[in-house]
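yo, Glycosyltransferase 2-like domain-containing protein is done. seq:
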Amino acid sequence: MDFTEFKSRFQREQVEEYPNEVDPKPLVSILVLTYNHVAFLPQCLDSILGQKVNFKLEILLADDESVDGTQEICLQYAKKYPGLIRFFQHKKINNIQINKLDTGIFNALYSLYQAKGEYIAYCDGDDLWGDKTKIHRQVNFLQQNPDYILSYHPVIYFNDQSSLPIKNKNILNKDLSSEELKKVIQQPLLNTVCFRNNMKNYPAEITTILNSDNFLISLLGHFGKGKYLESIKPSTYRIHSGGIWSMISKEKKFLSKIQSLKTIAHYYGQNNQKELSKYFTTEVYMYQKSLIFINWKNKTYIKMLKNLLDYSIYSIANSPILLDLKPYLSRKMQ
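structure:
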């Protein structure tokens, strides 16, 4: 799906780009996606504007029609830094909904398509970077190591209930092979990642899942390896009540993850990447079993039966025998 098709399918109202003087050929594009981040956005933008670099960059500041004063902050920064900031004013009517929930997927993909740099980095409006040399060092590494598609670094987690960092046992602190990236065995947090802008088109399936960052990392894995740069100071990832993902229950997170894995498995199956499709199908089974156990533990037996039925149907539909018969049955039905 190229940018023209994307807009044709999802854009109902024109996205407004505030006038700017940003260089048309930056080396790096920094994507800042924001919605109701009035309490955090100035820190985020200041941490980006404070980067020490010797190359041209652009900051794509994209707001999803905030109602808490975030838009006004975006406008202030866009006026103050016209040579660095491209401010996009999105409309809620363009939001892509998943399970009746508004998402930031349109905003995120629109920004990816608009990025002009050879490299792309992320920092959501409620996060911030902790190292002024972050981008310089990540880009420098990628320029010198063409077999790597992306680099990433340490991160610390905070929530809005405490000033102390949250301990996270699953923090990624090692390099990743191309295969590990493709399978998303471990995923670097996007606000630590800098990657080559190799993808000009994106699968339409990425618009149908909440965990679209999983899909993006998997796709990037086809272009190379991932490098962990331990010496870069950690970025900050905030967990707060205003975050879309934070507002979702544990059970709904599992359901969302299952749907994402199914979509990725189907995508790779359709594109004749059978090993990857098989891997993600197995992951679906694992998450489905975990969800059924959660239902049993919480004594939500009706939900357990429904999820058990979903598990059984998916298992049958993806059994090796039926998968082998699918091409034959498809020909017979034509």
